UniProtKB/TrEMBL annotation:
Family assignment from sequence similarity: Belongs to the NmrA-type oxidoreductase family.
GO (cellular component) term, any one: nucleus
Protein name: NAD(P)-binding protein
Domain NmrA-like: start-end pairs: 5-259
Key words of the record: NADP, Oxidoreductase
Length: 313
């Protein structure tokens, strides 16, 4: 049995990883789920689902914002495979320092086989200093830089995520007009803005599983994956193309509407960055190095048909 520790295990990303590991590895996996509250409904539901799939799950209490060396050592105890996600909007400007501490502690683990870090690129750098307000991108990119500095002796991969497909439902982006047209409303980005999409539920967990499995083989991870940050994104599409795919599958009329902003300067800057610079433009997605090691990629068409099963518009 191998020990998999997941930070952010009760969230969208961590849950995708925990459930995929449980589903594919069953009793071969001991999952240590890091949470601030092991008694919460989300924690208990995760435990029930993972154990029903035959894997072992231990809920480990750890609050990143109250982190001490002893608490961190306890959180990481026995870890062989590590998935790290931190919530930028919960940790704010402390995210970089806190997650660099986690990386430092992980690097010192005696049995660590692979560290996966869920990350984003530096929008300020890519935009040549035009968009300096996309703090959560920068916070995570600084942790990548730290990994490059201190992680030369361990195996790690940065998983750069795209625009979550789950945003469509989670943020209620589709609404119905009085005439029955379905409107996809989103801020600042236009119908021509193309972003790479990550369908977390279907994509992130399986990418983590494949990377963990490959890292455990004799040949290990290939050079174009090891100690690199690379996009885990199934497809790139403009918002106009997404709306067209909904129309194609439903036969209904859809339209895309650009809203002025969300009233959140950081998110508005992020969407200006997407509009003007795209995301991971130096990559063709799905990324070939991940495809080569067997990471499957869902498509826009699959996402839309899956979404339509669970939602009215
Ligand atoms: N939406 C997008 O399109 C998009 C795209 C790329 C990247 N992202 C990034 O995704 C991240 C959020 O990931 P997610 O969607 O998986 O999050 P989520 O579903 O909102 O869950 C947040 C997770 O963080 C944990 N957490 C929060 N504060 C914590 C603390 N102080 N100590 C320990 N754990 C803590 C929560 O655990 P407990 O509540 O159980 O403690 C929970 O598991 C953000 O940083 C965002 O920048 C989002």
């Amino acid at each position: 049995m191998s020990v998999y520790t997941i930070f952010g295990a009760t969230g969208l990303q961590g849950k995708s990883v925990a459930l995929t590991l449980a589903e594919h590895l069953g009793p071969k996996a001991h999952i240590r789920a890091i949470t601030r509250d092991p008694t919460s409904t989300r924690s208990q539901q995760l435990k029930d689902t993972v154990t029903s799939l035959g894997a072992q799950l231990t809920l480990v209490k750890h609050d990143l914002s109250q982190q001490t060396t002893a608490a961190l050592e306890n959180a990481l105890q026995g870890t062989e495979y590590l998935f790290l996600n931190s919530d930028s909007f919960a940790l704010r400007e402390e995210e970089t320092r806190i997650m660099q501490e986690v990386v430092d502690a992980a690097v010192a683990l005696p049995n660590l086989r692979l560290l996966l870090w869920s990350t984003l690129p530096d929008a300020s750098k890519i935009s040549g200093g035009k968009y300096t307000g996309v703090k959560h991108f920068q916070q995570k990119a600084r942790v990548d830089e730290h990994l490059h500095r201190v992680g030369q002796k361990i195996a790690w991969v940065g998983l750069q995520l795209g625009w979550f497909a789950e945003n469509v439902g989670d943020y209620h982006l589709l609404t119905e007009d009085a005439d029955g047209t379905v409107a996809f409303k989103y801020a600042i980005a236009t119908a021509e803005t193309a972003v790479p999409w990550t369908w977390i539920t279907k994509e992130l967990g399986v990418a983590a599983l494949k990377l963990f499995e490959k890292s455990a083989t004799v040949e290990g991870l290939p050079e174009d994956v090891l100690r690199k940050s690379l996009p885990v994104c199934g497809w790139r599409a403009t918002f106009g193309e997404v709306v067209a795919e909904f129309e194609r599958q439903t036969g209904r009329k859809y339209r895309y509407e650009t809203l002025g902003g969300w009233g959140n300067p950081e998110l508005d800057d992020m969407n200006r960055f997407f509009r003007d610079f795209g995301l991971y433009e130096d990559w063709t997605v799905p990324a070939e190095p991940l495809r080569k090691i067997g990471v499957p990629s869902p498509t826009l068409s699959e996402f839309v048909s899956d979404y339509l099963v669970g939602h009215k518009v």
